[in-house]
Protein backbone atom coordinates (compact mmCIF):
# COMPACT_ATOMS: atom_id res chain seq x y z
CA UNK A 1 0.00 0.00 0.00
CA UNK A 2 1.40 3.36 -1.04
CA UNK A 3 1.53 6.33 1.31
CA UNK A 4 -1.24 8.92 1.12
CA UNK A 5 -0.80 12.42 -0.28
CA UNK A 6 -0.15 13.88 3.16
CA UNK A 7 2.93 11.65 3.41
CA UNK A 8 4.35 12.73 0.05
CA UNK A 9 6.37 15.45 1.79
CA UNK A 10 8.29 12.95 3.93
CA UNK A 11 11.19 12.57 1.45
CA UNK A 12 11.60 16.36 1.48
CA UNK A 13 11.53 16.24 5.27
CA UNK A 14 14.42 13.76 5.20
CA UNK A 15 16.35 16.11 2.92
CA UNK A 16 15.70 18.94 5.40
CA UNK A 17 16.95 16.74 8.26
CA UNK A 18 20.12 15.99 6.30
CA UNK A 19 20.75 19.68 5.64
CA UNK A 20 20.03 20.63 9.26
CA UNK A 21 22.13 17.94 10.93
CA UNK A 22 24.92 17.35 8.43
CA UNK A 23 25.51 20.64 6.63
CA UNK A 24 24.18 23.62 8.58
CA UNK A 25 26.83 23.64 11.33
CA UNK A 26 29.55 21.69 9.56
CA UNK A 27 32.21 24.37 10.03
CA UNK A 28 31.34 25.39 13.60
CA UNK A 29 33.46 22.87 15.51
CA UNK A 30 37.24 23.30 15.66
CA UNK A 31 39.39 20.75 13.87
CA UNK A 32 40.39 17.79 16.03
CA UNK A 33 43.81 16.15 15.94
CA UNK A 34 45.15 13.92 14.61
CA UNK A 35 42.63 12.83 11.96
CA UNK A 36 41.09 16.08 10.74
CA UNK A 37 44.29 18.10 10.58
CA UNK A 38 46.05 15.13 8.95
CA UNK A 39 43.61 14.73 6.07
CA UNK A 40 43.17 18.47 5.69
CA UNK A 41 46.92 19.07 5.61
CA UNK A 42 47.61 16.38 2.99
CA UNK A 43 45.05 18.04 0.71
CA UNK A 44 46.41 21.53 1.45
CA UNK A 45 49.88 20.39 0.44
CA UNK A 46 48.48 18.95 -2.79
CA UNK A 47 47.01 22.34 -3.63
CA UNK A 48 50.15 24.19 -2.61
CA UNK A 49 52.60 21.92 -4.48
CA UNK A 50 50.47 20.95 -7.45
CA UNK A 51 51.46 17.31 -6.88
CA UNK A 52 48.22 15.30 -7.03
CA UNK A 53 49.94 11.93 -7.36
CA UNK A 54 52.09 11.36 -4.26
CA UNK A 55 50.47 12.16 -0.88
CA UNK A 56 52.66 14.12 1.52
CA UNK A 57 51.91 14.94 5.16
CA UNK A 58 53.89 17.78 6.71
CA UNK A 59 56.23 17.60 3.74
CA UNK A 60 57.11 13.89 4.06
CA UNK A 61 55.77 10.93 2.11
CA UNK A 62 52.55 9.50 3.55
CA UNK A 63 51.54 6.16 2.05
CA UNK A 64 48.91 4.90 4.52
CA UNK A 65 45.99 5.47 2.11
CA UNK A 66 45.41 5.92 -1.63
CA UNK A 67 44.57 9.30 -2.99
CA UNK A 68 40.84 9.84 -3.71
CA UNK A 69 39.86 11.17 -0.28
CA UNK A 70 42.64 13.75 -0.47
CA UNK A 71 41.54 14.78 -3.95
CA UNK A 72 37.96 15.36 -2.84
CA UNK A 73 39.11 17.41 0.16
CA UNK A 74 41.39 19.45 -2.08
CA UNK A 75 38.56 20.17 -4.53
CA UNK A 76 36.32 21.28 -1.66
CA UNK A 77 39.11 23.53 -0.36
CA UNK A 78 39.55 25.04 -3.80
CA UNK A 79 35.83 25.85 -3.88
CA UNK A 80 35.21 26.90 -0.28
CA UNK A 81 38.62 27.78 1.14
CA UNK A 82 40.99 26.08 3.55
CA UNK A 83 38.62 25.66 6.47
CA UNK A 84 36.82 23.06 8.55
CA UNK A 85 33.66 23.17 6.44
CA UNK A 86 35.54 22.36 3.23
CA UNK A 87 37.44 19.34 4.52
CA UNK A 88 34.37 17.88 6.24
CA UNK A 89 32.06 18.44 3.28
CA UNK A 90 33.05 15.29 1.31
CA UNK A 91 32.19 13.11 4.34
CA UNK A 92 28.82 14.80 4.82
CA UNK A 93 27.91 14.60 1.12
CA UNK A 94 28.95 10.92 1.12
CA UNK A 95 26.44 10.23 3.92
CA UNK A 96 23.69 11.98 1.94
CA UNK A 97 24.43 9.95 -1.18
CA UNK A 98 24.59 6.73 0.85
CA UNK A 99 21.18 7.55 2.31
CA UNK A 100 19.84 8.11 -1.22
CA UNK A 101 21.18 4.73 -2.39
CA UNK A 102 19.67 3.05 0.68
CA UNK A 103 16.31 4.68 -0.09
CA UNK A 104 16.37 3.55 -3.74
CA UNK A 105 17.41 0.03 -2.77
CA UNK A 106 14.87 -0.33 0.06
CA UNK A 107 12.04 0.72 -2.31
CA UNK A 108 12.45 -2.65 -4.00
CA UNK A 109 11.43 -4.47 -0.83
CA UNK A 110 7.68 -3.85 -1.11
CA UNK A 111 5.07 -1.46 -2.47
CA UNK A 112 4.92 0.34 0.88
CA UNK A 113 7.00 3.52 0.82
CA UNK A 114 7.25 3.42 4.61
CA UNK A 115 10.12 0.91 4.45
CA UNK A 116 12.59 3.09 2.48
CA UNK A 117 11.54 6.23 4.35
CA UNK A 118 12.07 4.66 7.75
CA UNK A 119 15.31 2.93 6.71
CA UNK A 120 16.70 6.26 5.50
CA UNK A 121 15.63 8.01 8.72
CA UNK A 122 17.24 5.28 10.83
CA UNK A 123 20.48 5.64 8.87
CA UNK A 124 20.66 9.45 8.95
CA UNK A 125 19.84 9.67 12.68
CA UNK A 126 22.14 6.88 13.89
CA UNK A 127 24.70 8.43 16.22
CA UNK A 128 27.78 6.84 14.63
CA UNK A 129 26.72 7.80 11.11
CA UNK A 130 26.20 11.37 12.36
CA UNK A 131 29.50 11.53 14.21
CA UNK A 132 31.61 10.11 11.38
CA UNK A 133 29.67 11.91 8.64
CA UNK A 134 30.42 15.34 10.10
CA UNK A 135 34.10 14.53 10.70
CA UNK A 136 37.01 14.63 8.27
CA UNK A 137 37.87 10.95 7.88
CA UNK A 138 37.64 8.56 4.92
CA UNK A 139 35.14 6.07 6.30
CA UNK A 140 31.99 7.82 5.05
CA UNK A 141 33.42 7.87 1.53
CA UNK A 142 34.31 4.20 1.77
CA UNK A 143 30.81 3.39 3.02
CA UNK A 144 29.31 5.28 0.07
CA UNK A 145 31.32 3.41 -2.55
CA UNK A 146 30.82 0.03 -0.88
CA UNK A 147 27.07 0.68 -0.70
CA UNK A 148 27.04 1.72 -4.37
CA UNK A 149 28.91 -1.44 -5.37
CA UNK A 150 26.64 -3.81 -3.41
CA UNK A 151 23.40 -2.11 -4.46
CA UNK A 152 24.45 -2.03 -8.13
CA UNK A 153 25.43 -5.70 -7.98
CA UNK A 154 22.11 -6.62 -6.38
CA UNK A 155 20.15 -4.69 -9.00
CA UNK A 156 22.22 -6.37 -11.72
CA UNK A 157 21.49 -9.87 -10.41
CA UNK A 158 17.75 -9.13 -10.60
CA UNK A 159 17.81 -8.01 -14.23
CA UNK A 160 16.69 -10.12 -17.16
CA UNK A 161 17.84 -7.55 -19.72
CA UNK A 162 21.49 -8.15 -20.63
CA UNK A 163 22.01 -4.48 -21.51
CA UNK A 164 20.67 -3.22 -18.17
CA UNK A 165 22.59 -5.85 -16.25
CA UNK A 166 25.82 -4.87 -18.01
CA UNK A 167 25.32 -1.17 -17.20
CA UNK A 168 24.69 -1.96 -13.53
CA UNK A 169 27.74 -4.21 -13.34
CA UNK A 170 29.86 -1.45 -14.88
CA UNK A 171 28.55 0.93 -12.20
CA UNK A 172 29.40 -1.65 -9.53
CA UNK A 173 32.93 -1.90 -10.94
CA UNK A 174 33.37 1.88 -10.98
CA UNK A 175 32.20 2.01 -7.36
CA UNK A 176 34.72 -0.71 -6.42
CA UNK A 177 37.48 1.23 -8.15
CA UNK A 178 36.58 4.43 -6.30
CA UNK A 179 36.43 2.51 -3.02
CA UNK A 180 39.91 1.15 -3.73
CA UNK A 181 41.23 4.65 -4.41
CA UNK A 182 39.79 5.69 -1.05
CA UNK A 183 41.08 2.96 1.27
CA UNK A 184 42.98 0.41 -0.74
CA UNK A 185 42.58 -3.37 -0.88
CA UNK A 186 40.12 -3.42 2.04
CA UNK A 187 37.57 -1.78 -0.24
CA UNK A 188 37.56 -4.84 -2.50
CA UNK A 189 37.31 -7.29 0.38
CA UNK A 190 33.98 -5.98 1.71
CA UNK A 191 31.87 -6.34 -1.49
CA UNK A 192 33.39 -9.78 -2.13
CA UNK A 193 32.63 -10.85 1.46
CA UNK A 194 29.00 -9.85 0.90
CA UNK A 195 28.27 -10.79 -2.72
CA UNK A 196 29.85 -14.25 -2.82
CA UNK A 197 28.01 -15.75 0.21
CA UNK A 198 24.80 -14.02 -0.84
CA UNK A 199 24.98 -15.45 -4.36
CA UNK A 200 25.61 -18.92 -2.92
CA UNK A 201 22.60 -18.51 -0.62
CA UNK A 202 20.49 -17.45 -3.59
CA UNK A 203 21.82 -20.11 -5.95
CA UNK A 204 23.26 -17.44 -8.28
CA UNK A 205 26.94 -18.11 -7.81
CA UNK A 206 27.43 -19.32 -11.39
CA UNK A 207 25.82 -16.13 -12.66
CA UNK A 208 28.19 -14.06 -10.53
CA UNK A 209 31.20 -15.99 -11.86
CA UNK A 210 30.06 -15.49 -15.45
CA UNK A 211 29.50 -11.75 -15.08
CA UNK A 212 32.10 -10.64 -12.53
CA UNK A 213 34.58 -9.72 -15.28
CA UNK A 214 32.18 -7.02 -16.47
CA UNK A 215 32.63 -5.26 -13.12
CA UNK A 216 36.34 -6.03 -12.92
CA UNK A 217 37.28 -4.18 -16.10
CA UNK A 218 35.92 -0.73 -15.11
CA UNK A 219 37.32 -1.19 -11.59
CA UNK A 220 40.80 -1.71 -13.03
CA UNK A 221 40.39 1.18 -15.48
CA UNK A 222 39.43 3.55 -12.64
CA UNK A 223 42.46 2.61 -10.54
CA UNK A 224 45.10 1.99 -13.21
CA UNK A 225 46.11 5.56 -14.28
CA UNK A 226 46.96 6.74 -10.78
CA UNK A 227 48.36 3.31 -9.80
CA UNK A 228 50.88 3.47 -12.66
CA UNK A 229 51.79 7.09 -11.98
CA UNK A 230 52.55 6.57 -8.30
CA UNK A 231 54.43 3.34 -9.03
CA UNK A 232 56.62 5.25 -11.44
CA UNK A 233 57.19 8.07 -8.94
CA UNK A 234 57.37 5.97 -5.74
CA UNK A 235 58.09 2.27 -6.45
CA UNK A 236 57.79 1.34 -2.76
CA UNK A 237 54.23 2.67 -2.41
CA UNK A 238 52.38 -0.57 -3.21
CA UNK A 239 54.63 -2.68 -1.01
CA UNK A 240 54.00 -0.37 1.94
CA UNK A 241 50.25 -0.06 1.33
CA UNK A 242 49.68 -3.79 0.95
CA UNK A 243 52.02 -5.32 3.53
CA UNK A 244 52.19 -2.66 6.24
CA UNK A 245 48.76 -1.05 5.96
CA UNK A 246 46.76 -4.20 5.22
CA UNK A 247 48.53 -7.43 6.14
CA UNK A 248 50.26 -6.13 9.28
CA UNK A 249 47.38 -3.97 10.43
CA UNK A 250 44.62 -6.53 9.93
CA UNK A 251 46.45 -9.78 10.62
CA UNK A 252 49.56 -9.40 12.75
CA UNK A 253 48.95 -8.88 16.48
CA UNK A 254 52.30 -7.11 16.71
CA UNK A 255 52.23 -5.13 13.50
CA UNK A 256 48.59 -4.16 13.66
CA UNK A 257 47.68 -0.70 14.90
CA UNK A 258 44.99 -0.15 17.55
CA UNK A 259 44.80 -3.77 18.81
CA UNK A 260 41.47 -4.52 20.48
CA UNK A 261 39.61 -7.67 21.62
CA UNK A 262 37.28 -9.61 19.32
CA UNK A 263 34.11 -8.19 20.97
CA UNK A 264 35.27 -4.58 20.54
CA UNK A 265 32.71 -3.68 17.87
CA UNK A 266 29.61 -5.05 19.60
CA UNK A 267 29.13 -2.12 22.04
CA UNK A 268 30.15 0.30 19.31
CA UNK A 269 27.48 -1.06 16.96
CA UNK A 270 24.82 -0.87 19.66
CA UNK A 271 25.86 2.58 20.84
CA UNK A 272 26.30 3.84 17.31
CA UNK A 273 22.77 2.71 16.41
CA UNK A 274 21.22 4.99 19.04
CA UNK A 275 18.46 6.21 19.27
CA UNK A 276 17.23 2.97 17.68
CA UNK A 277 18.98 0.54 20.04
CA UNK A 278 16.16 0.65 22.65
CA UNK A 279 13.84 -0.70 19.95
CA UNK A 280 15.91 -3.89 19.68
CA UNK A 281 13.11 -5.94 21.22
CA UNK A 282 10.61 -4.70 18.65
CA UNK A 283 13.11 -5.29 15.83
CA UNK A 284 13.80 -8.89 16.85
CA UNK A 285 10.09 -9.66 17.26
CA UNK A 286 9.31 -8.10 13.90
CA UNK A 287 12.08 -9.96 12.08
CA UNK A 288 10.52 -13.24 13.18
CA UNK A 289 7.55 -12.39 10.92
CA UNK A 290 9.71 -11.48 7.91
CA UNK A 291 9.97 -13.73 4.89
CA UNK A 292 13.58 -14.89 5.20
CA UNK A 293 13.60 -16.18 1.64
CA UNK A 294 13.29 -12.59 0.38
CA UNK A 295 16.55 -11.74 -1.46
CA UNK A 296 16.87 -8.31 0.15
CA UNK A 297 16.58 -9.70 3.66
CA UNK A 298 19.25 -12.27 2.89
CA UNK A 299 21.50 -9.64 1.33
CA UNK A 300 21.06 -7.33 4.35
CA UNK A 301 22.04 -10.17 6.70
CA UNK A 302 25.18 -10.96 4.67
CA UNK A 303 25.98 -7.26 4.33
CA UNK A 304 25.75 -6.69 8.09
CA UNK A 305 27.09 -9.90 9.56
CA UNK A 306 30.06 -10.80 7.35
CA UNK A 307 31.91 -7.45 7.27
CA UNK A 308 31.20 -7.11 11.00
CA UNK A 309 32.77 -10.53 11.63
CA UNK A 310 35.70 -9.68 9.35
CA UNK A 311 36.49 -6.43 11.17
CA UNK A 312 36.06 -8.17 14.54
CA UNK A 313 38.57 -10.85 13.54
CA UNK A 314 41.18 -8.28 12.47
CA UNK A 315 43.85 -7.25 14.92
CA UNK A 316 43.71 -3.50 14.31
CA UNK A 317 40.38 -1.91 15.18
CA UNK A 318 38.90 1.59 15.14
CA UNK A 319 35.27 2.42 15.82
CA UNK A 320 34.81 4.01 12.39
CA UNK A 321 35.76 0.84 10.48
CA UNK A 322 32.28 -0.72 10.79
CA UNK A 323 30.48 2.24 9.21
CA UNK A 324 29.70 0.18 6.03
CA UNK A 325 27.56 -2.07 8.26
CA UNK A 326 25.04 0.69 9.04
CA UNK A 327 23.05 0.78 5.76
CA UNK A 328 21.97 -2.89 6.08
CA UNK A 329 21.46 -2.42 9.83
CA UNK A 330 19.15 0.54 9.15
CA UNK A 331 17.19 -1.57 6.65
CA UNK A 332 16.76 -4.47 9.10
CA UNK A 333 15.72 -2.10 11.90
CA UNK A 334 13.11 -0.50 9.66
CA UNK A 335 11.74 -3.83 8.45
CA UNK A 336 11.69 -5.31 11.96
CA UNK A 337 9.94 -2.35 13.60
CA UNK A 338 7.34 -2.12 10.84
CA UNK A 339 6.56 -5.83 10.95
CA UNK A 340 6.23 -5.67 14.73
CA UNK A 341 3.77 -2.77 14.61
CA UNK A 342 1.80 -4.25 11.72
CA UNK A 343 1.22 -7.35 13.82
CA UNK A 344 -0.11 -5.18 16.67
CA UNK A 345 2.76 -6.22 18.91
CA UNK A 346 3.57 -2.80 20.35
CA UNK A 347 5.16 -3.83 23.64
CA UNK A 348 8.71 -3.67 22.34
CA UNK A 349 8.19 -0.29 20.68
CA UNK A 350 6.50 1.21 23.75
CA UNK A 351 9.19 -0.13 26.09
CA UNK A 352 11.94 1.29 23.89
CA UNK A 353 10.23 4.68 23.65
CA UNK A 354 9.88 4.81 27.44
CA UNK A 355 13.59 4.05 27.83
CA UNK A 356 14.49 6.95 25.53
CA UNK A 357 11.97 9.23 27.27
CA UNK A 358 13.50 8.41 30.65
CA UNK A 359 17.05 9.06 29.43
CA UNK A 360 16.03 12.37 27.81
CA UNK A 361 14.20 13.45 30.99
CA UNK A 362 17.19 12.54 33.17
CA UNK A 363 19.58 14.50 30.95
CA UNK A 364 17.19 17.47 30.88
CA UNK A 365 17.00 17.60 34.67
CA UNK A 366 20.75 17.09 34.98
CA UNK A 367 21.33 20.00 32.60
CA UNK A 368 19.06 22.30 34.62
CA UNK A 369 20.71 21.33 37.90
CA UNK A 370 24.15 21.73 36.36
CA UNK A 371 23.44 25.24 35.07
CA UNK A 372 22.15 26.29 38.49
CA UNK A 373 24.83 24.56 40.58
CA UNK A 374 27.78 25.26 38.26
CA UNK A 375 27.46 28.80 36.85
CA UNK A 376 30.76 28.33 35.03
CA UNK A 377 28.94 26.14 32.52
CA UNK A 378 27.37 29.23 30.99
CA UNK A 379 30.82 30.83 30.78
CA UNK A 380 32.31 28.00 28.74
CA UNK A 381 29.16 27.70 26.57
CA UNK A 382 26.89 30.71 26.16
CA UNK A 383 23.47 30.30 27.71
CA UNK A 384 21.50 30.28 24.46
CA UNK A 385 23.40 27.18 23.31
CA UNK A 386 22.46 25.37 26.51
CA UNK A 387 18.87 26.49 25.92
CA UNK A 388 18.95 24.85 22.47
CA UNK A 389 20.31 21.63 23.98
CA UNK A 390 17.75 21.71 26.79
CA UNK A 391 14.90 22.37 24.36
CA UNK A 392 16.17 19.48 22.26
CA UNK A 393 16.07 17.11 25.25
CA UNK A 394 12.62 18.31 26.26
CA UNK A 395 11.24 17.84 22.75
CA UNK A 396 12.88 14.44 22.49
CA UNK A 397 11.09 13.26 25.61
CA UNK A 398 7.82 14.89 24.56
CA UNK A 399 7.91 13.32 21.11
CA UNK A 400 8.58 9.89 22.64
CA UNK A 401 5.55 10.35 24.91
CA UNK A 402 3.41 11.33 21.91
CA UNK A 403 4.74 8.33 19.97
CA UNK A 404 3.74 5.98 22.80
CA UNK A 405 0.19 7.37 22.80
CA UNK A 406 -0.29 7.70 19.04
CA UNK A 407 -2.70 5.25 17.42
CA UNK A 408 -1.53 5.49 13.82
CA UNK A 409 1.59 3.42 13.05
CA UNK A 410 3.19 5.96 10.74
CA UNK A 411 2.57 8.79 13.17
CA UNK A 412 4.30 6.79 15.89
CA UNK A 413 7.32 6.25 13.71
CA UNK A 414 7.42 9.88 12.57
CA UNK A 415 7.29 11.20 16.13
CA UNK A 416 9.94 8.77 17.36
CA UNK A 417 12.22 9.64 14.43
CA UNK A 418 11.79 13.40 14.80
CA UNK A 419 12.41 13.37 18.55
CA UNK A 420 16.21 13.64 18.75
CA UNK A 421 16.69 16.07 15.82
CA UNK A 422 17.01 19.34 17.78
CA UNK A 423 19.17 17.75 20.47
CA UNK A 424 21.52 16.36 17.81
CA UNK A 425 21.57 19.79 16.15
CA UNK A 426 22.92 21.26 19.41
CA UNK A 427 25.98 18.98 19.47
CA UNK A 428 28.26 21.17 17.35
CA UNK A 429 27.33 24.12 19.55
CA UNK A 430 28.20 22.35 22.82
CA UNK A 431 31.10 20.06 21.87
CA UNK A 432 33.79 22.74 21.27
CA UNK A 433 33.76 23.73 24.95
CA UNK A 434 34.38 20.11 25.94
CA UNK A 435 37.45 19.82 23.69
CA UNK A 436 40.75 20.51 25.37
CA UNK A 437 43.33 22.58 23.52
CA UNK A 438 45.53 19.53 23.10
CA UNK A 439 42.76 17.85 21.04
CA UNK A 440 41.71 21.03 19.20
CA UNK A 441 44.81 23.26 19.16
CA UNK A 442 43.55 25.67 16.52
CA UNK A 443 42.76 28.59 18.85
CA UNK A 444 46.13 28.21 20.61
CA UNK A 445 48.04 28.13 17.32
CA UNK A 446 46.11 31.03 15.78
CA UNK A 447 46.75 33.13 18.88
CA UNK A 448 50.48 32.71 18.28
CA UNK A 449 50.34 33.05 14.49
CA UNK A 450 52.19 36.37 14.36
CA UNK A 451 55.06 34.98 16.42
CA UNK A 452 55.89 32.70 13.47
CA UNK A 453 57.95 34.32 10.74
CA UNK A 454 59.50 32.82 7.58
CA UNK A 455 62.89 32.50 9.26
CA UNK A 456 61.47 30.77 12.36
CA UNK A 457 62.41 27.10 12.82
CA UNK A 458 59.36 25.18 14.04
CA UNK A 459 59.61 21.97 16.06
CA UNK A 460 56.61 19.92 17.23
CA UNK A 461 55.81 16.47 18.51
CA UNK A 462 54.25 14.11 15.94
CA UNK A 463 50.66 14.48 17.18
CA UNK A 464 50.73 18.26 16.68
CA UNK A 465 52.84 18.47 13.52
CA UNK A 466 49.99 18.32 10.99
CA UNK A 467 48.04 20.96 12.93
CA UNK A 468 51.05 23.29 12.99
CA UNK A 469 51.47 22.83 9.23
CA UNK A 470 47.75 23.39 8.58
CA UNK A 471 47.39 26.60 10.59
CA UNK A 472 50.69 28.16 9.49
CA UNK A 473 50.69 27.00 5.87
CA UNK A 474 54.10 25.33 6.16
CA UNK A 475 55.43 21.86 5.45
CA UNK A 476 58.91 22.08 6.95
CA UNK A 477 58.18 21.34 10.62
CA UNK A 478 60.77 19.32 12.52
CA UNK A 479 59.42 16.39 14.55
CA UNK A 480 60.70 15.83 18.08
CA UNK A 481 60.81 12.42 19.76
CA UNK A 482 58.67 9.49 18.63
CA UNK A 483 57.96 9.91 14.92
CA UNK A 484 54.68 7.93 15.03
CA UNK A 485 52.90 7.94 11.69
CA UNK A 486 55.79 9.89 10.16
CA UNK A 487 58.26 7.05 10.75
CA UNK A 488 58.11 5.70 7.20
CA UNK A 489 58.26 9.10 5.51
CA UNK A 490 61.19 10.19 7.67
CA UNK A 491 63.16 7.11 6.62
CA UNK A 492 63.85 8.70 3.22
CA UNK A 493 67.17 10.53 2.84
CA UNK A 494 65.53 13.83 1.89
CA UNK A 495 63.48 13.88 5.11
CA UNK A 496 65.72 12.39 7.80
CA UNK A 497 66.94 15.81 8.96
CA UNK A 498 63.40 16.56 10.12
CA UNK A 499 63.52 13.79 12.75
CA UNK A 500 65.00 15.19 15.98
CA UNK A 501 65.90 13.85 19.36
CA UNK A 502 66.48 16.11 22.36
CA UNK A 503 70.23 16.40 21.74
CA UNK A 504 69.70 17.43 18.13
CA UNK A 505 67.17 20.02 19.26
CA UNK A 506 69.75 21.46 21.71
CA UNK A 507 72.27 21.73 18.87
CA UNK A 508 69.64 23.50 16.77
CA UNK A 509 68.84 25.99 19.53
CA UNK A 510 72.49 26.98 19.95
CA UNK A 511 74.18 26.32 16.58
CA UNK A 512 77.86 27.17 15.94
CA UNK A 513 76.93 30.02 13.60
CA UNK A 514 74.90 31.80 16.26
CA UNK A 515 71.41 31.65 17.78
CA UNK A 516 68.30 31.28 15.60
CA UNK A 517 64.64 31.71 16.39
CA UNK A 518 63.43 28.20 17.28
CA UNK A 519 59.84 27.51 18.34
CA UNK A 520 58.91 24.30 20.16
CA UNK A 521 55.21 23.34 20.24
CA UNK A 522 54.35 20.36 22.40
CA UNK A 523 52.01 19.04 25.06
CA UNK A 524 52.67 20.38 28.53
CA UNK A 525 53.19 16.87 29.90
CA UNK A 526 56.02 16.27 27.44
CA UNK A 527 57.53 19.71 27.90
CA UNK A 528 57.90 19.02 31.61
CA UNK A 529 60.39 16.31 30.68
CA UNK A 530 62.08 18.33 27.94
CA UNK A 531 62.52 21.52 29.99
CA UNK A 532 65.22 20.07 32.23
CA UNK A 533 67.36 19.13 29.24
CA UNK A 534 67.00 22.36 27.22
CA UNK A 535 68.39 25.87 27.61
CA UNK A 536 66.28 28.59 29.19
CA UNK A 537 63.68 29.84 26.69
CA UNK A 538 63.35 33.43 25.57
CA UNK A 539 59.57 33.13 25.63
CA UNK A 540 57.25 30.54 27.12
CA UNK A 541 53.48 30.17 27.05
CA UNK A 542 51.68 27.26 28.69
CA UNK A 543 47.92 27.06 28.28
CA UNK A 544 45.25 24.36 27.91
CA UNK A 545 47.70 21.47 28.08
CA UNK A 546 49.94 22.92 25.34
CA UNK A 547 53.32 24.61 25.54
CA UNK A 548 54.69 27.27 23.18
CA UNK A 549 58.40 27.74 23.80
CA UNK A 550 60.81 30.03 21.92
CA UNK A 551 64.59 30.02 21.92
CA UNK A 552 67.04 32.51 20.51
CA UNK A 553 66.40 36.14 19.56
CA UNK A 554 62.73 37.15 19.48
CA UNK A 555 61.83 38.53 16.03
CA UNK A 556 61.22 42.26 16.10
CA UNK A 557 58.05 42.03 14.08
CA UNK A 558 56.07 40.20 16.78
CA UNK A 559 53.06 42.22 17.90
CA UNK A 560 51.96 43.33 21.33
CA UNK A 561 49.27 41.13 22.88
CA UNK A 562 46.36 43.53 22.18
CA UNK A 563 47.38 43.94 18.54
CA UNK A 564 47.96 40.19 18.28
CA UNK A 565 44.45 39.39 19.50
CA UNK A 566 42.87 41.86 17.08
CA UNK A 567 44.81 40.52 14.11
CA UNK A 568 44.37 36.80 14.81
CA UNK A 569 40.62 37.30 14.98
CA UNK A 570 40.76 38.60 11.42
CA UNK A 571 43.35 36.18 10.05
CA UNK A 572 42.25 33.02 8.25
CA UNK A 573 43.84 29.71 9.26
CA UNK A 574 47.26 29.43 7.67
CA UNK A 575 47.74 33.19 7.56
CA UNK A 576 51.18 34.48 8.50
CA UNK A 577 51.13 38.30 8.23
CA UNK A 578 54.28 40.36 8.56
CA UNK A 579 53.77 42.97 11.26
CA UNK A 580 55.78 45.29 13.44
CA UNK A 581 55.51 45.18 17.17
CA UNK A 582 57.10 45.42 20.54
CA UNK A 583 56.46 43.85 23.89
CA UNK A 584 58.11 42.04 26.75
CA UNK A 585 58.73 38.35 26.88
CA UNK A 586 56.08 36.70 28.98
CA UNK A 587 54.93 33.44 30.42
CA UNK A 588 51.23 32.62 30.58
CA UNK A 589 50.11 29.81 32.83
Walk me through this protein's architecture:
It is a single chain. The protein has 27 helices and nine strands. With 589 residues, it is mainly alpha-helical.
How would you briefly describe this protein structure?
The chain has 589 residues and is mainly α.
Largest sheet: 7 strands, mixed
Structural domain tally: 3
Straight-line distance between termini: 67 Å
Spatial strand sequence of the major β-sheet: 5-4-3-6-8-7-9
* Coarse shape: globular
Task: Walk me through the topology.
Blueprint: H1 10-23, H2 35-49, E1 56-57, E2 60-61, H3 68-80, H4 84-106, H5 114-125, H6 127-133, H7 139-158, H8 162-183, H9 186-202, H10 205-233, H11 237-250, H12 265-272, H13 280-287, H14 295-313, H15 326-342, H16 347-373, H17 377-380, H18 383-405, H19 409-418, H20 421-425, H21 427-434, H22 442-447, E3 457-461, H23 462-472, E4 478-480, H24 487-490, E5 499-500, H25 502-509, E6 518-523, H26 524-531, E7 539-543, E8 546-551, H27 561-570, E9 587-588
Helix pairs in contact: 1-4, 1-5, 2-3, 2-23, 3-4, 4-5, 4-7, 5-15, 5-19, 7-8, 7-9, 8-9, 8-10, 9-10, 9-14, 13-15, 13-16, 14-15, 16-18, 18-19
Features of this protein?
61% helix, mainly alpha, 6% strand, 7-stranded mixed β-sheet, 3 domains, 27 helices, two-stranded antiparallel ribbon, 589 residues
Amino acid sequence: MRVTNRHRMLPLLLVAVFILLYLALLGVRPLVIPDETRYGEISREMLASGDWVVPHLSGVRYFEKPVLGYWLNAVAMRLFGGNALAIRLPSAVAVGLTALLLFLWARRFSDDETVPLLATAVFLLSFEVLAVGTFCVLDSLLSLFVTAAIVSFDFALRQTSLRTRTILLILAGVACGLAFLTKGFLALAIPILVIVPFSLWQGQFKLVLRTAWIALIPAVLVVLPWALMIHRREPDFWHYLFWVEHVDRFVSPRGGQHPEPFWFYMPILLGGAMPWTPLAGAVLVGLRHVNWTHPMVRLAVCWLALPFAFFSACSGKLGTYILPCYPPLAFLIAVGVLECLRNDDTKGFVAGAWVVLSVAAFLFVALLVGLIAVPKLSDDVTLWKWVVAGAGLFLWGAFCWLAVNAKDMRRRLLLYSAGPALFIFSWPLIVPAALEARKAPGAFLRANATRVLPESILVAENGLTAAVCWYYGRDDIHILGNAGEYTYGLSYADSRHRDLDIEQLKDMIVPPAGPEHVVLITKTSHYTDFRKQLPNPSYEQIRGGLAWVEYGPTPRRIMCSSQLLELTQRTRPGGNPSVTSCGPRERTE
